[in-house]
Design goal:
Distance between the termini: 37 Å
CATH architecture: 3-Layer(aba) Sandwich
Bound molecules: iron/sulfur cluster
Strand order of the largest sheet: 2-1-3-5-4
Strand content: 5-15%
Number of domains: 1
Number of strands: 5
CATH class: Alpha Beta
Order of helices and strands: HHHEHHEHEHHEEHH
Radius of gyration: 18 Å
């Protein structure tokens, strides 16, 4: 069953990046033809819906929806980034290349690894020329993120960049909320700058370092306190 799910997920991705047909064996055909219903209200069925989403005009400029990746067990860690850049759109994965390397270094500085987080974006399709998403695009994509959070049930979220507070804190500006923890029902969300913003503005490194130290403290209180 898990193999079938994984296969369907990969086929959806290949379709999203423009592949019209791939040769498959008889055994795979049989596996795909099995009448196994997808649970209606599951993370997997949500992923299938989101990968085909055309709710806003960003679907016209993307290669594919970037759903996210990482562990899906409840009570874990989650990163919410801004919106896919060109490379993330191309590879269908969050945090590619230099920006991904910096994220890994930022996390390593507080003894954490990217593999410990489910990583996704606040808005799941790239924008024309990498501009920030517009309000109607944010509103269209918000239910996807909220449902993703509902299914994943993370204990602590690290939100990176200017878009997550626009989505999760009713349009608040990052500069007013960074370095602080907010509650979304039972879930704790911590806001700071995005690694790509740090690359363009090295002067904010110290502020980000201080934020990360605070995030580490929250992490220890929530995950390591006996
Ligand atoms: Fe759908 Fe979100 Fe992509 Fe818009 S940005 S098409 S709402 S997945």
């Amino acid at each position: 069953m898990d193999i079938r799910k994984e296969l369907i997920k990969n086929l959806f991705y290949l379709k999203e990046i423009g592949l019209q047909a791939i040769p498959i064996s008889e055994a795979i055909k049989k596996l795909l033809q099995q009448e196994v219903p997808l649970e209606e209200d599951s993370l997997f069925s949500l992923q299938n819906k989101v990968l085909r989403c055309v709710k806003c005009t960003l679907h016209r400029v993307r290669k594919g929806v970037v759903w996210g990746e990482g562990p899906t067990e409840p009570n874990g860690l989650m990163i919410i980034s801004e919106y896919p850049d060109r490379d993330e759109d191309f590879y269908g994965k969050p945090f590619i290349g230099e920006v991904g390397n910096l994220l890994e270094r930022m996390l390593a500085a507080i003894n954490l690894k990217r593999e410990s987080f489910f990583i996704t974006h606040a808005v799941k399709c790239k924008t024309p020329g990498g501009r920030p998403p517009e309000q109607e695009e944010i509103e269209a994509c918000k239910p996807h993120l909220l449902k993703q959070i509902k299914h994943l049930k993370p204990k602590l979220i690290l939100a990176l960049g200017f878009t997550p507070p626009k989505v999760l804190l009713d349009g608040k500006n990052l500069t007013l909320v960074r370095g602080k923890i907010f509650k979304l029902k039972e879930i704790n969300i911590f806001f700071t700058y995005h690694p790509s913003f740090v690359l363009k503005n090295p002067g904010i490194k110290r502020a980000v370092w201080e934020d990360l130290q605070k995030f580490r403290k929250f992490y220890e209180e929530m995950f390591l306190a006996s």
